[in-house]
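Two entries, shown back to back:
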Amino acid sequence: MMKSLRDKTDIIFDLFFSLVFMPLMIAIGPVHFWWHSFPVFTALVVGYLYGCYFATRFFKLPKLILSRSYIRLSLIAAAGVAATWLLTMFPLPDMDFVIPSMSEYQTRIRNYNIAISIWFMFSVVMSYSLTVAFVRELYERLFLQTIAEKQRKEAELAMFKAQISPHFLFNTLNSLYCLVIGTSQKAEDAFVKFTEILRYTYVAGADAQVEIRNEIEHIRNYIDLQLIRLDSHTTVRWDCQVDDDSCMIPPMLFLTFVENAFKYGTSTTRDCFVSIVLKLESGNLFFSTENMIVRKRSEFSSDLPVGLSNCRSRLDCLYPGRHELVAVEENMIFKVNLKIDLN
């Protein structure tokens, strides 16, 4: 792909130089006046200027300049100056006047003007060639940088998914293990919920985007699974209002926030609450969690920032400049507010 784009760009620049730039310089310059008197010399000058343009790309002068290959640059520059000087020394017929001294004088004036014109055109062509070469080099580097950045972000997203999914899986297994040991009647329902969650994690997690209705169902299954192990000490509020349940979002976008709310905000010995809100209106997504901090403050402070940091990085990759994530702790209440512009 990169080679194809570079070739197309080269063709565009080459055609512009060959069919627009050079003919225009010949038409408005002195070259078209030389053709009637010195056709061979004129063809040589035009061919030399075309050669200077294509030689700039052949020798890859921008790469030599950027790599500071001063010796090669000096040799190429010396060769270009020498070739241009030799061209100005091309033997042209003398001017023919009645007075021999005037013929010699007019011949010198003509040769001087031609030499100045050749040096000027050489300078213009080289300036254009170097500018085009640097633009081409810059375009290629920016394109490669874009590809590298895209690959880096894809690798980061894969890493974040790999970090989030196993963490959720082991937490759920621990909850089920406690239920099975106590021969709880809720075990069958728990395994059904867990099966749905596991299927979504590994099937939908491999997709780049899923319908938001699937993500909502995933959150509901997770909440239901947590409610099976919790008692009346924990109050859970789940508020979901979506005007378009077919809207596409990345899978497991909210899992870390929901999981942390239950991990740090639930207890079987003291009253506590967890609030989860998801709203979607006209492409504007709002998601929030709120919970009491019932775990030890030191444990909460050391563990939670890691998960939030991963979520921030993932959101930066997915929605650069189109999201806002705020996490605050006030009076042992932890709140997370996420806003995303999906339009």
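entry 2 starts here
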Amino acid sequence: MYILAPSILAADFGKLGEAVKKTEDAGAAYIHLDVMDGAFVPSISFGMPVLSSLRGYTSQVFDVHMMVEEPGRYIEDIKKAGADLITVHQEACVHLDRVIGQIKAAGCRAGVALNPATPVSTLECVLDQVDLILIMTVNPGFGGQKFIPYTLKKVRTLRRMLEERGLQTDIEVDGGVTTENVRALMEAGANVFVAGSAVFKNDISGNVKAFMDIFKEQES
């Protein structure tokens, strides 16, 4: 099953609730929420108050991407704000196994993200503990960047690793995802797609529909 996760970083924050609702009505099952601390990544985005206020606008899965140092400090608060799926960076966790356990203990699905230059082999010991692995296809911290081509090989390698263990874990990709390159990502083994500008620029409903049409075409 292919899933679109529009990233609100690219949305008009003056009309955020309305924009998110449009993505849900058009068929996007997830909404992607990037929490940035200005330390792990250069940018600062938003935190729990925005998540909490947005929760009332949609029943979409809240796919929360924690781009913060030592994210274990915030797991309970992020859960209370409405998160369904919490993804932390391998590079940001001194004790990754412990943080994965914290996410599951909070009642959320657990994801782990890898920066473009981090090899997928670093997750070998926790593959069977996570629900989703996020391959960053740009360097994290800013929207609107161009897709890094070599990350496609990482997706293929990861899908092969998962299949060898008999795991059906979701592979999410985030960064520069468009209707032009999404087919290549699907063929490589990704099934959850974060898209910011490609969704929220101009016609939100039409942009979501374009992705959904590609998904249906691939599934048929």
